[in-house]
Design goal:
Blueprint (H helix, E strand, L loop, with lengths): L2 H35 L4 H17 L19 H17 L8
Helix pairs in contact: 1-2
Amino acid sequence: MTSRALLAVSLFAGFYLFGIVLILALLWLPWAQVRYTGGPDLSGLIAGGGALYIAWALVPPRTRWRAPGPELSAKAQPRLFSLIAGVAADYLTRGWVGTPGT
């Protein structure tokens, strides 16, 4: 792995690890209040609500994938597909030479 990939994976894992540790720390307060005083106070309820909010925020939203545009077919666009086939054949025979755009 390159150093940038390792950094990206480390930051990704660290984000979720930090979130889970924060949730556990916030849930400890109402647990301790119930265990040692018999019931949660206002601070325990706020900490529990904060823990639930952070847990909800750690889950990525579910978005439906929609097709980006109209579907193209070889029957509907024969000139386009012949151009694409010609470029592909040209690339396979000559290979990429030079810089793009020349």
